[in-house]
Amino acid sequence: MRDMAHNPDSDGIWPVELDGVVFEAPGEVGAKRLIDGVSLRLEPGPLTCVMGPNGAGKSLLLRLIAGLIRPSGGEVTYGGAAEAGKNRIAFVFQRPVLLRRSVAANLDHALKTYGAPRAARRGRIAELLALGQLQAFARQPARVLSGGEQQRLSMVRALAARPALLLLDEPTASLDPQATAAIEALIRQVAGEGVKVVLVTHDRDQARRMAEEIVFLHHGRIAEQAPAARFFDQPRSPEAQAYLAGRLLL
Amino acid sequence: MQDFWAAIGEAVALIAAMNADLVEIIGLSLRVTLSAVAVACLIGLPLGAVLAVGRFPGRMAATVLVNALMGLPPVVVGLTVYLMLSAAGPLGVLQLLYTPTAMIIAQVILVTPIIAALTRQVVEDLHREYDELLRSMGASRSGTVATLLWDARYSLLTAALAGMGRALAEVGAVMIVGGNINHVTRTMTTAIALETSKGELALALGLGMILIALSVIVSAALMGLRSSAARMAYA
Fold first, then answer.
1. Where are the domains of chain A?
2. Nearest CA distance, B150 vs chain A (angstrom)
3. What's domain A8-99+159-244's superfamily in CATH?
4. What do you get for the CA distance between the two ends of chain A, in Å?
5. Packed helices B20-53 and B100-136: angle between N→C axes, nearest 10 degrees
6. What is the complex's ipTM, to 2 decimals?
7. Angle between helices A118-131 and A147-158 (to 10 degrees)
8. Number of CB pairs < 8 Å for A and B?
């Protein structure tokens, strides 16, 4: 099968490294650190799940990796560079943000933004529609699709530029099991094609199904980072043990 | 009261007969208004978008200024444009005073702040929603503005129509800079003012009816457009 998601040319961002990254809410001097000295190295390969209780800083961590927010301290580097370069990292938000256009026009807009030439766009749109099983909806307004279809569109739109790193912020949080399964299948497919996936989830079952590596956050710090099997069978940090046992983490 | 109903009857007859003077006045009014709104859109839409999206010193002051200019008194605008275009004024050499172009200039000055201020509000709201997405896609500043303007198109049409309403109903400024010259710069509003002062109520009423009808048509078109846009989740 043709590789529809991954662009080998975009591999220059590795490793993505966070070195002592701190994030405080802007404008609040002396405010609580929402991300507190996180150091993390991301390499191509295992599907990484970021887990943790509400307010642990999972979504913030993802935004810091994407460069959507700047750290208050520490640094994020991409292959040693301060910027990842265009089209290397794609982001899928918990709540799909779709343009007020048709499904195909949403994809066309993304491709245009990524600088794809007009001649190449049409074929690529057809590929992406097929990847998301959205061919039947190509001409429909994107925002009238069901939640699952909207999130599939968000996913394939994020893949339009063939990114090296795909960041997913709880993409199935508000979806039913069937729509969740479709998104998970899509994630497995793109991960299988060589795209590094970092998935934020608070769903332990989903993490068990999907993850090869777990980064467990608590109070803005990495409490534990481990291969998924080891993390679920023998969590070492007291925070992860409590979380997996379903105890309230404060 | 009898005079009133007689005038109404005459006005209806003028409209039904498509009286040549009436048609000429309506044509000029629409030409001036539509031209002014088109130019005001060309200036006001990007200006409003830049105020919504841009981060530059003085942005807040510029926003306050644009909002304040929405309430510009038409007669003051008319007087200013008159002084600029009069023979002794800095633009007198252009000889535009008492021409439809002078009326268009005055209306552009009146309408642009309305369109810019409404555009800023609409685009700012949409930008809040799209900001992270567009930044995650690496969209350029100009690409962001273009995306926001296109996706806000139905709301921006409302802004343009609000400007059109102001231009169509405007009388003070166009009277000063146009001079209300028959067959040259006489618009619906200036004709209504003149005919009323002469006691010729039929033409004034006929023009008034046309103005109200245009307003109803514009509102109905707007409602239809917005409801179909909402149905497609484009609004």
1. 8-99+159-244
2. 9
3. P-loop containing nucleotide triphosphate hydrolases (3.40.50.300)
4. 47
5. 30
6. 0.90
7. 140
8. 45
Q: Do B136 and A110 touch (CB under 8 A)?
A: no
Q: Do A101 and B233 touch (CB under 8 A)?
A: no
Is A198 in contact with A209 (CB distance < 8 Å)?
no
As a whole number of angstroms, the distance between CA A51 and CA A59 comes to 10
**Which is nearest to B175 in space by CA: B226, B125, B102?**
B102
B138 touches chain A (CB under 8 A): yes
> Quick check: A143 and B234 CB within 8 A?
yes
* Domain architecture of chain B: domains with CATH: 23-185 (1.10.3720.10)
CB contact at 8 A, B48 and B115: yes
- B132 in contact with chain A, both atoms CB, cutoff 8 A: yes
**CA atoms within a 13 Å half-sphere pointing along the CA-CB vector of A98:** 32
Q: Is A41 on the interface with B (CB under 8 A)?
A: no
Task: Give the list of residues 6+ apart from residue A210 with CB closer than 8 angstroms, or none.
Answer: A47, A49, A184, A187, A188, A199, A201
pTM of the model: 0.85
Distance from CA of B30 to the nearest CA of A (A): 32
Per-residue b or e along A120-134, where b marks 16 or more CB atoms closer than 10 Å to that residue's CB: ebeebbebbbebbeb
pLDDT in tens, B114-168: 999 999 999 999 999 999 999 999 999 999 999 999 999 988 988 898 899 899 9
Question: A residues 211-240 near B, CB within 8 Å?
Answer: none
Judging contacts by C-beta atoms under 8 Å, the chain A residues touching residue B130 are: 97, 99
Nearest to B147 among A109, A141, A142 (CB): A109
Q: Is A87 on the interface with B (CB under 8 A)?
A: yes
CA distance A26 to chain B (A): 16
CA torsion angle A42 A128 A170 A221 (round to 10): 10
Per-residue pLDDT of chain A (250 residues; tens, 9 = 90+): 445 555 555 558 999 999 999 999 866 566 788 999 999 999 998 999 999 999 999 999 999 999 999 999 999 999 999 988 888 999 999 999 999 999 999 999 999 999 999 999 999 999 999 999 999 999 999 999 999 999 999 999 999 989 999 999 999 998 999 999 999 999 999 999 999 999 999 899 999 999 999 999 999 999 999 999 999 999 999 999 999 998 866 6
